[in-house]
Amino acid sequence: MHIGIDARLNYYRVGGISTYTHRIIQALEAIDTEDQYTIFHSRKAGASLTQAFQRANLWTPCHHRLERITLSVELLRYRLDILHSPDFIPPLRGAKYHIITVHDLNFLHYPQFLTPESFRYYNGQIKQAVTQADHIFADSEATKQDIIDMLNVPAEKITTHKLGVDEHFRPLPAEILEQHRATLNLPPEYFLFVGTFEPRKNIVGLLEAYQQLIAEFPDAPPLVLAGNRGWNFDEMMTRVVAMDLSSHILWRESIAYDALPALYNMAIALITPSFYEGFGLPALEAMACGTVPIVSNRSSLPEVVGDVGLQINPDDPTTIANAMRQAMSDSQWRATMQQAGLRRARQFTWSQTAQVILSVYRQFK
To answer: Is the distance from CB of 101 to CB of 84 less than 8 angstroms?
Structure first.
C-alpha cells in the first residue's frame, strides 16, 4: 500500500499531537518494511521527521479556511491508498481511504476554553470529519466513548490505541540531576505542572489549591509551572499577582526536551488538574521518571495512571491541596507510588501504538 501521514502541524505547533505524529512515524519505520510511506511536511519545515520514509512538502497551511479543498488538490498526484490525519480533520478527498486520530473532544465539552479560531476549525468540521473517515483512532477509552455518545459514531469504526512513553523518560543519576538543577535554577524540592498555560489545564484551580496549602504550610515547596504560553495567559498572570503568589511560583518556559526528564525526576509530584485530557502524556512521562502523579479524576487520566498516585476533583481546589499535602508529608507512601509508577509506565510503548495502527492500515489492503 501507499500510505500518507499528514505531519504539517509539526512545523506550526509543539504539543501532544505533534509528539504523537513524530513518534508513530518513528515506530512505523521500525516495524513496517512492506508498505510505501509518504510523510507530508509543511514546505516551510526544515528538519525531516523521517529517515526511512519518503518526504513530500505541501503548500497548504494547517487550519486554513480552505484547507480541506486545497489539500485535496495537492494530494491527488500521490495516488494514496490511505491518508492518516493525526490532527482530526481530513481533506475532502486525499486517498482511497481516510483514517483520522481524534485525541479528545475538549472543544465540544468546553467550548469556552478555546480560541475563536480553534472553535471555528474543530467544532465546525468534526461531525463531517468522523462521518467521512473510514476509521478513527482514539487515544483512550474515554475519548472513544465521547465519540460514540457525542457524535453518534458506531463503536466498530473506532479503535483505541494507548500512547507510548519514550525511553528518554527514566530515573536519572544524582550528578545529572544536579547539573540540570543548576541550569534551570530549581530549588531542592518543588511541585510541578507541565503543559500549555491555557484555561483547559485548570491552572487557576491549581493556584487556588496551592494558596490553601501555603496558608497552612508557609514553608511548603514552591510550585514550578513548566510549559509554553497559551490562550488567556495574561489573565492567568493577573490572578497570580492578585493571589500574592508571585514569590512561590516559578515559571519555566520552553524547557528543552533533553531537560524534561530531570525536571520530572526532581519534583515531589506532578500535578495535572485538567478539566479534560484526551490522554495526558505528562502523567505518563512523570511515572516513567519515578515521579508521583496527581491527576484529575476525569476523562482519560484515570486510564493512564491506574492506581498510581492520587486523583482529584478539578472543580474542588481543596481536593488538590489535600493531595499535595499528602505527597509532601508522607515520604513512605511517595516511595511506594514511585515504584508503582515505574512499573505502570513500562506498559506504554510507541511500538505497541504503532502495531495497533498498522493492524488497522492492513484492514484496507
So the answer is: yes
| pLDDT tens digit sequence for 187-220 | 999 999 999 888 889 999 999 999 999 999 999 9
| Contact present, 288 and 342 (Cβ < 8 Å) | yes
State the cell numbers at 339. Answer: 515504584
Measured distance CA(163)–CA(139) in Å, rounded:
7
Long-range contacts of 209-216 (CB under 8 A, 24+ apart): 209/273, 209/317, 209/318, 209/319, 209/320, 209/321, 209/324, 210/245, 210/248, 210/249, 210/321, 210/324, 211/243, 211/245, 212/317, 212/318, 212/321, 213/321, 213/324, 213/325, 213/328, 214/245, 214/248, 216/325
Q: What is the mean pLDDT of the chain?
A: 94
* Nine-digit cell string for 45: 519545515
d(CA 296, CA 309): 11
Residue 263 to residues 105, 109, 191: CA-CA distances in angstroms?
29, 31, 10
**Domains of the chain (ranges, CATH numbers):** 2-164+349-362 (3.40.50.2000), 174-345 (3.40.50.2000)
End-to-end CA distance of the chain: 7
Pairing state between β 82-85 and 97-102: parallel
pLDDT digits (tens, 9 = 90+) for 45-89: 999 999 899 999 999 999 888 999 999 999 999 999 999 999 999
